[in-house]
Design goal:
This protein is α/β, with parallel strands linked by helices and 241 residues long. It contains 10 helices and 9 strands. Bound molecules: zinc ion.
Length: 241
């Protein structure tokens, strides 16, 4: 492990355009639960699996049940950034890191100070009235009773990409451009099974592909460096010069 951290330190020392691509594992270390994890079979609170509840159709047809699940399982306003978030913000501030690309919707990178963050799946912090487009913050959604409603009476929709909704291709294209220009890409906290996000690594043509993940991934063999561990613990040992 120490050898691998040293190798990562060397890679980061000589890199000038790092792009970080992070998945769920980056947030779980901040105590954000995985909404896909089912409750025990004897205390199933919800009548449908998460993939059904967090879908566009379900949101449109059963908003009350959607928001019940959404507020309980997908919003964690008390979560704080962990060392991974802070280290990435430091890398960006010192001109080594170009962008963070994330599959998470919790806004923790921005809270840690990162400026350029591509949120492929949106953010719980942005919410818009479906009728008039008025913006509402996450606290408004959390504190609303049942379905959050706008002054105008419209339903407020979180700016989060639901199942059977498309990713914002503008964000995707911007992320691809930064990946194509990167000398190092760090992929962390994801097993790279969620498409199309998992395709992003195919645009990388730089010197070093680094994988940090607790478990093995399908592309371990393609990487220059693979570290099986927690993202925060690994990055916390790196010095940004
Ligand atoms: Zn409205």
């Amino acid at each position: 492990m120490i050898d691998k951290i040293e190798k990562l330190q060397q890679i980061i020392d000589k890199s000038r355009n790092i792009v970080f691509f992070g998945g769920r594992g980056v947030s779980t270390e901040s105590g954000i639960p995985d909404f896909r994890s089912q409750d025990g079979i004897y205390n199933q609170k919800y009548k449908y699996p998460p993939e059904i509840i967090i879908s566009h159709d379900f949101f449109m047809n059963r908003p009350k049940e959607f928001f019940e699940f959404y507020k309980e399982k997908m919003i964690a306003t008390s979560a704080k950034p962990n060392p991974a978030h802070y280290k990435l913000a430091e890398m960006e501030a010192k001109g080594k890191l170009t962008a963070v690309i994330t599959q998470n919707i919790d806004g923790l990178h921005q809270l840690a100070g990162s400026k350029k963050v591509y949120e492929l799946h949106g953010s719980v912090h942005r919410n818009y009235c479906m009728n008039c487009g008025k913006f509402y913050d996450v606290d408004y959604v959390v504190n609303s009773n049942g379905i959050p409603k706008c002054d105008c009476g419209g339903i407020i929709k979180p700016d989060v990409v639901l199942y059977d909704e498309n990713l914002d291709m503008n964000i995707f294209d911007l992320a691809i451009r930064d990946i194509e220009n990167a000398d190092t890409m760090i992929v962390a906290g994801t097993s790279l099974t969620v498409y199309p996000a998992a395709n992003l690594i195919h645009y990388f043509d730089g010197d070093n592909l680094v994988l940090i993940n607790r478990d093995e991934t399908g592309i371990d063999n393609n990487a220059n460096l693979v570290i099986h561990g927690n993202v925060g613990e690994v990055l916390n040992q790196i010095k940004v010069k």
